[in-house]
Every structure is written in C-alpha cells, then in structure tokens.
TrEMBL record:
Keywords assigned: Hydrolase, Metal-binding, Metalloprotease, Protease, Signal, Zinc
Name under which the protein is recorded: Lysine-specific metallo-endopeptidase domain-containing protein
GO biological process, one term: proteolysis
Stored Gene3D superfamilies: 2.60.40.2970, Collagenase (Catalytic Domain) (3.40.390.10)
Residues covered by the Lysine-specific metallo-endopeptidase domain: 172-303
This protein's record includes keyword Hydrolase: yes
Cofactor(s) essential for the protein: Zn(2+)
Signal peptide: 1-17
Record-stated family: Belongs to the peptidase M35 family.
Superkingdom of source: Eukaryota
Pfam families for the chain: Aspzincin_M35
Species per Swiss-Prot/TrEMBL record: Rhizoctonia solani
Length: 305
C-alpha cells in the first residue's frame, strides 16, 4: 500500500453492452505533497497489429458488459511543476483502446474519461532519477549493454547507426524546410514555429545521444518492442518484438531507437497518444500539438514513411 502522499494514479475501465467504454482517473488523495513521492512511469512501444495477428490469449484483456479493470500508474519523477506552481491540477488519461474483432482486425474505441482533480503542494520538482544528458561533443562515449548476447549487441549497434542516420536526415530536412513541408505536415500537422522547433531540437539530439546510452536485454515480453523510464535518462530496455522487427524502415529496430529516445525528457519528453501509421496520421491532422509530442510520429517522420 502506498503512502497517502504518494501520487499513485488509478484508472478504472468499465465496459458496457453497446461496446462503449468509460475511463475514470482517481488519485488516492485530493492533495499531493512533494513530487519526490511520485514514482516512475515506464513508457512502452508495442505493435497493436502484431499483437492482434499473433492471437495469444495472454496479450488481451476481455471485458464483458459491466466488468471493469483497474490499473495503477506510478508517476514519480515524471513531472516538473515549478513553472506552473502549486495548486489545482487536472489529471487526465489517454482514451484510445482497440478491440480485436473475430478476423483479428482492430477497431478503435474512445473511452469517455472522468478526470481526477488534485491539489499539489510542497516540492514541485524531483531529480531523483535524472542523469545529465551528454554534450553533443562527447562523441567518444560508447553504448553499453546488459544481458545482451554478442549477436544482439551487433543488432543494437547497427540499429544505433541507422537511427543516427535517420535523425541526421530528419534534421537536415527540417533545417532545409524552415517553413514546413509535405513530410512535416503529414506527421506533425499544420506548421507552427514552436512545434517545428520542438521537432528540430529532438532530431538534433538524436543524431548523437543514442550512441552513449545503455541497452538492457532482460525484457522478454513478446508483444513489446522496448520501453524506457523517461526520467531515468539513457537506459533503453529492449523486448521480444524488437528482435523480430526489421533492421530499418517503419516499425524497425532503428526507428524504435528514435521512438524510445524521444521519451527521455532530455531529448523531448514525448508520450504515446497513438500507435501505428494510421492512428499517427489521424493525430497529426486532428491534434498537431499531441502529434509533435507523440513518439511514433517522430519514428515515422524519421523514416519518411
């Protein structure tokens, strides 16, 4: 049981007979004291289409009408609230869910969300898990590996090289098109100076940063590419689907490095608002701000999908 001061966010998902969903966000207390009491959230890349096609029962949650599932999300070290200050905050949640049909196709369902209202007091920033990002000039630093076979180390090294090439190409494209381009609009939506700068800075960092990260091969989840803890800079956990992915292109080992890298706050601090090309294209069209903060949009932009 977490202490009352710790911010352990609960989301309860309720199914109804008409295939609609409701999602309620709840905090254990209406008042949170000190963000040092937050716990760290993991951010994951996975392939919904691949999961549906594989059809493994353990990869799904079956909800009958009236049933609900509650999941706790530990958010320590994720938010720096010093700019906005103490006071009232609304805590929302992503509401896109996918239903697997009888033919293994996917249908999108958007849940109706009831957000949580909390008061935040005390310490407003936590640096417990933050490691300084490397300077761009530190080219000599090399990637390190944990529990990775020599074959996997070779695959990772190749992915890092390809990711750096993608990031360099993306950075060059953006600097050559400072007022936007078809490629930019496709993945990041309507051009704006602020969003353009976010994308430009992200790819600038990704040209060199991944070469100095630590790569951990202990994850065995077959449905997941990789995950990171956004506030624990520089460690990427590689999972089962990463090894089965192609070396380059969309949904590859290389663009997984791009995807996961953007999650780090020292790179950009993206979220996962949408997965897959179709959902990311829709996101760029409907919500450019979320698109530029969506990891998969950066991955697909990088490979010019």
């Amino acid at each position: 049981m977490f202490a009352a001061a710790a911010f352990v966010l609960s989301t309860a998902l309720l199914a109804s007979a008409d295939r609609s969903l409701s999602l309620k966000v709840a905090a254990p207390s209406a008042e949170i004291t000190d963000v040092d009491n937050f716990r760290v959230a993991a951010t994951v890349r996975y392939s919904p289409q691949a999961v549906a096609k594989a059809g493994r029962a353990e990869s799904f949650v079956e909800l009958k009408p009236g049933e609900s599932v509650t999941v706790e999300h530990d958010l320590a070290g994720v938010y720096n609230l010093t700019l906005t200050g103490a006071g009232a905050y609304t805590v929302d949640a992503a509401n896109l869910f996918r239903v697997v049909e009888a033919d293994s196709s996917l249908t999108d369902i958007y849940a109706d969300v009831v957000a949580a209202e909390v008061q935040v007091r005390g310490k407003l920033a936590s640096f417990k898990n933050v490691v300084a990002a490397p300077a761009a000039s530190r080219m000599g630093k090399r990637a390190t590996y944990s529990s990775c076979s020599s074959t996997r180390q070779t695959q990772i090294a190749s992915a890092i090289t390809s990711a750096a090439s993608y990031a360099t190409d993306s950075y060059s494209h953006l600097t050559s098109n400072p007022s936007g381009s078809t490629r930019y609009t496709r993945w990041f939506g309507t051009w704006s100076s602020s969003r353009y700068t976010l994308a430009l800075n992200s790819f600038s960092r990704l040209r060199t940063y991944p070469a100095g990260w630590a790569y951990d091969c202990t994850c065995t989840d077959a449905d997941t590419y990789a995950y990171v803890y956004p506030s624990r800079y520089g460690t990427v956990y590689l999972c089962g689907y990463f090894w089965n992915a192609p070396a380059t292109g969309a949904g590859s080992r290389a663009d997984t490095i791009i995807h996961e890298g953007t999650h780090f706050t020292q790179v950009l601090g993206t979220d996962d608002y949408a997965y897959g090309q179709s959902a990311c294209l829709s996101l760029a069209s409907s919500n450019p701000t979320n698109a530029v903060y969506n990891a998969d949009n950066h991955a697909f932009f990088s490979v010019n999908a």
